[in-house]
Structures are given as C-alpha cells and as structure tokens.
C-alpha cells in the first residue's frame, strides 16, 4: 500500500516535470522506468497562400471634348485692306468724320451725338464668319466701337460692341433704337487703355450669332429679325470726350453649317 502511494506521487511529479520540460524544450527521465521522456512538439500551421489585397480600380475621369465654336467655316469670300475709299461711306463734318486711308478706315466722333457708322457697299452676307481689327486711340469709360453686320439699311443692323471700360455686348438696332441681345460682359480681351488693339469676330448662321475677341469665344446671342445685310463699323462717344478708332484687315469667310436636330421630348 505504501509502495502504491509512492508510485502515484512520483507519477504526479513526473507529469509536472514533463510539462516544464516541454515548455523549456528539453528532456527529462521517467523516475520509475528510467527512460527519457521527450515532449511532443506543438504542430505549426504554415499559410502557403496568404490572401492578397486586391486594390479597388481607380476612377478614370471622363474627358469632354471642347465644342467647336466656329463650325463650318469655308473659303474667304471677301478681304478688304482699305486701300480705296470707294466701297465705304465716308464723310467729314464738324462733329464726326469717316476717312479711308493708310490701309484703314478711321472714325472720329465728338460727344453728344448718335453713334457714327460706315457700311461697305455692294456686298450682302447671310451666313458668314467675319473678322476685323480695331485700334482705339482716343477712348475712355463707356465709349464704345465695333463691328456691324446683316444691315438691310443704315438704320437697321446688328452691332457687336466693345467699350473702353473693358466690356463687350451685342444689340439689334431698329430705326436707330438699340435692343439688347447680350448685356455688356467684362472681358480680358478688350483693350484696357489706349492705344489698344483687338481682333473682333462674328460667326452668324441663321438666327444664331457667336462673338469672338482675339480668336477667343465670348458669348452667343440669337435673333431672327435680319436674315442678311451689309457689314460695317461704328464708334460712339458716350462720355464727355471725343473718340477715335481705326479699323483694318477685314476678312469674311463663307459658312456651311446645319445645327443638330433636337431630340424629341418623350
């Protein structure tokens, strides 16, 4: 009986020593059997194919093409270097003067009178793209000048005007009375002072007009009143001082363009 109790106590000590040896990674002897007791190692699990992180696809921005602002421009149908005054209305008076010479047409006007205009004779344009260079030498504040087009007569026409305060706008003139098509907008292309220079352009197709300064788009307007007419230039002294502006290098292109049809409303 005493021998059995001793064997049980020794067995408990052996198990404790075996556990310690297993933790220490060593060997111990069985005190009863006298043989080495080798702890069984804990198996290690290897992750042969670790999960990979799949990145979310990056968002690619959609590029929108810049719309063509002057579609359908064709051949040059008119060039005018202002070498002869025969094609233009010219006059000299106390309050205003229109003179052609030195490859330009010059308008000088004093304050207190209506805008002074000159039209090119013998050419009528409906759909077209026209450009002309304007050079103000006396101009300030709300004084304005610019390009006239589709004039059936000298009191009815469209007017593309730039002012010396840095704005540009468009009007329809009927019996000498202006009707606003585009209120004046500030533009960095308008000469900030004098002397200055700006290349003015008008694209006209049907009832749609697009306006350009130095080749850069400014705004669009529309009107159906005058389908065709002459081209001209004007200057106006809106303040208390005189205005002088010279125009040169008139070029007119044909335009062949059909606006895209609108999708029907469901």
Write up this protein:
Helix content is 9%, strand content 44%. It contains one helix and 17 strands. The strands form three sheets. Strands 3, 4, 5, 6, 8, 13, 14, 15 and 17 form a nine-stranded antiparallel beta sheet that branches. Strands 7-16-9-10-11-12 form a six-stranded antiparallel beta sheet, with no helix packed on it. A hairpin with a 2-residue loop joins strand 9 and strand 10. The longest helix has 23 residues, at 2-24. Residues 8-26 have low confidence and may be disordered.
What's the average pLDDT?
83
The number of distinct β-strands equals 17
| Residue windows where pLDDT falls under 50 for at least 5 positions | 8-26
β-strand amount:
35-45%
Share of residues in helices:
under 10%
Coarse structural class: mainly beta
Largest sheet: 9 strands, antiparallel
Radius of gyration: 45 Å
Globular, elongated, flat, extended or rod-shaped: what is the shape?
globular
Spatial gap, N to C terminus: 105 Å
Which series of helices and strands comes N to C?
A: HEEEEEEEEEEEEEEEEE
Helix count? 1
Features:
nine-stranded antiparallel β-sheet; 1 helix; six-stranded antiparallel β-sheet; 9% helix; mainly beta; globular
Quick structural overview:
By secondary structure, this protein is mainly beta.
Task: Explain the layout of strands and helices.
Elements: H1 2-24, E1 28-29, E2 36-37, E3 73-80, E4 91-92, E5 96-100, E6 105-109, E7 116-119, E8 128-138, E9 144-153, E10 156-163, E11 167-174, E12 177-186, E13 198-205, E14 208-213, E15 216-222, E16 230-236, E17 243-255
Antiparallel strand pairs: 1-2, 3-17, 4-5, 5-6, 6-17, 7-16, 8-13, 8-17, 9-10, 9-16, 10-11, 11-12, 13-14, 14-15
């Amino acid at each position: 009986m005493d021998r059995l109790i001793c064997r049980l106590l020794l067995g408990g000590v052996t198990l404790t020593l075996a556990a310690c040896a297993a933790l220490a990674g060593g060997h111990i002897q069985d005190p009863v059997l006298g043989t080495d007791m080798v702890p069984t190692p804990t198996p290690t699990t290897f992750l042969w194919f670790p999960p990979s992180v799949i990145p979310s696809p990056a968002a690619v921005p959609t590029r929108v093409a810049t719309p063509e602002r002057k579609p359908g421009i064709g051949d040059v149908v008119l060039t005018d270097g202002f070498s002869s005054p025969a094609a233009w209305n010219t006059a000299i008076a106390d309050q205003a003067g229109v003179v052609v010479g030195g490859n330009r047409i010059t308008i000088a006007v004093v304050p207190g009178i209506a805008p002074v205009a000159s039209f090119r004779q013998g050419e009528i344009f409906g759909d077209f793209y026209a450009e002309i260079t304007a050079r103000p030498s006396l101009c300030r504040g709300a004084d304005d000048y610019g390009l006239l087009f589709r004039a059936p007569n000298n009191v009815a026409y469209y007017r593309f005007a730039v002012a010396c305060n840095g704005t540009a706008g468009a009007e329809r003139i009927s019996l000498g009375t202006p009707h606003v098509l585009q209120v004046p907008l500030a533009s960095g292309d308008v000469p900030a002072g004098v002397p200055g220079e700006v290349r003015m352009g008008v694209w006209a197709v049907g009832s749609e007009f697009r306006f350009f300064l130095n080749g850069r788009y400014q705004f669009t307007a529309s009107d159906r009143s005058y389908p065709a007419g002459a081209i001209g230039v004007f200057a106006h002294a809106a303040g208390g001082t005189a205005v002088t502006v010279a125009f040169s290098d008139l070029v007119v292109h044909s335009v062949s363009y059909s606006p895209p049809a609108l999708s029907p409303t469901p």
